[in-house]
TrEMBL record:
Residues 49-91 form a coiled coil. The gene is Chchd3. Keywords: Coiled coil. InterPro entries: MICOS_subunit_Mic19. It comes from Phallusia mammillata. The keyword Coiled coil applies. The lineage of its organism: Eukaryota, Metazoa, Chordata, Tunicata, Ascidiacea. GO terms for biological process: inner mitochondrial membrane organization. This is MICOS complex subunit MIC19. GO terms for cellular component: MICOS complex. The keyword Chaperone does not apply.
Amino acid sequence: MGNSGSNEVTIEKDGDQFIETAEGVQLSTSLVQKMSSNKMPNESGHNSKIKQEKEVSKLLEEYQSIIDEREKQLTDLSQKWKNDLEQEKEKHKTFCDQSYEEFQRSAHETESKFKKPTLKPVCETLQQQLIDCYKNNSKQVLNCSTALKDFTQCVNKAKSSLLCENSPDGA
C-alpha cells in the first residue's frame, strides 16, 4: 500500500452477472474487461493512452449517436402529438358546427309548425276613447261607464273570435 493511493473494489452479483464497483460506481463486466485488456505490460504508456483516447472518442460518438436518435424520436413523437391534437380540434369544430346547424334547422322547423301570435291591438279606438274619458273626468269616473262597457264588449268579442279561429273543430 505505502505511498500510492489504493482503490477499493467491490464485486456485486446482479442476476447472473458479477458487477465490479469502484468507489460506489458500478462498472459493467464488458467495461472491466476492456479496462483490463488495456493494461498490458508490453505496451508503452503513450500508446496505451492514445488507444484509451480513441476508445473514449469512439464511445462518445456512440453515445452521441444514441442521444441524436433519441432526440429525433422525441421530436417525431412531439410532431405526431401536435398533429393528433390538431386533428382532434378539427373534429371538435366540425362536430360543433354540425350540432349548431342541426339545432338551427330544428328551431326553424319547430317555429314553422306553430302560428306566430299577432300583436295587433284589439279595440284600439275604443281603448283610446276610454282613456280620454278617464282623463277628462278624473273626479267623476262613473261618467265613463258607457265607454268602459263598449270597450269590454269589444275585447270579449275579439277573444271569442280568436278562440273560434284556433279551435280544432273551427266552431
